[in-house]
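Narrative summary of target 7.
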Amino acid sequence: QVQLVESGGGLGQAGGSLRLSCAVSGSIASINDMRWYRQAPGKQREMVATIARVGTRIYADSVKGRFTISRDNAQNTVSLQMDSLKAEDTAVYYCYAEVATIKRPAIAYVYWGQGTQVTVSS
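Modeled conformation, tokenized:
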């Protein structure tokens, strides 16, 4: 059983900062890509940032230069530092991880966190 638990959402001000964290637990053999997605009301879920196990990062154009994704492979955690917040960053943010378990180490399955609300006031 693999679980992803997010923390750090809440209310932020435009121009301010928030930090999200996600801890992956369970019978983990390895974790490939870790990502943050977000979904605003009435909109589709979109990828915000991706970090590969070796550290390669990809960002959505809308957050480049403002958000930074990082991971700790020893602790099985991923974080999202969000700076220069804008009202349009308001959304539910979801953690995503591609996890290979000890039982099936050759296959990575996708797991999602439960989501954490981020609201930015202007």
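The mean pLDDT is 97.
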